[in-house]
Design brief:
single chain; 149 residues; 9 strands; two-stranded antiparallel ribbon; 7-stranded antiparallel sheet
Length: 149
């Protein structure tokens, strides 16, 4: 079950492979995500010293957050992947010109997971082509509905 989707990722990138990663979160962050107060629009994934981090994701703290915790909404959060997956991702990102983008946050067995995608950037004409395809699909749906009546 998806909590938050990053629609901008599909607009800006061709997603070629997907990986599910666990997240290192604080208690107030889990509560805020469950309340739907997270945003992945400007977020991206970076690899540093053989570890993978989610950078720029905004999680707004709840007003009922604990008084002794000083929440940072855009802190860098560590992502948990298998060593094999991390090696594979590092190789593709460094050599092949790929980038890593967060696709969504979702629940798996009660835990919050981040789905990340190995992506290649779209050029402007690719974005226009995607827009045309979407418009055509929408138009087809409208025609089919009218035809059924």
């Amino acid at each position: 079950m998806s909590i938050i989707d990053n629609k901008k990722a599909f607009h800006d990138y061709f997603i070629e492979e997907r990986y599910e990663a666990g997240m290192v979160l604080e208690g107030w962050e889990v509560k805020a995500i469950r309340a739907g107060r997270a945003q992945l629009k400007e977020a991206y994934v970076i690899v540093r010293k053989g570890e993978v981090y989610l950078f720029g994701a905004h999680i707004s703290p709840l007003s009922t957050a604990s008084t002794h915790v000083n929440p940072d909404p855009v802190r860098t959060r560590k992502l948990l992947l298998n060593a094999e997956e991390i090696k594979k991702l590092i190789g593709k990102v460094e050599r092949a010109g790929y980038t890593l983008v967060p696709i969504n946050l979702h629940y798996t067995k009660g835990r919050i997971k981040c789905e990340i995608g190995l992506a290649k950037g779209k050029k402007q004409h690719d974005k226009r082509e995607s827009e045309k395809q979407r418009d055509w699909q929408r138009e087809q749906q409208t025609i089919m509905k009218q035809h059924r009546r």
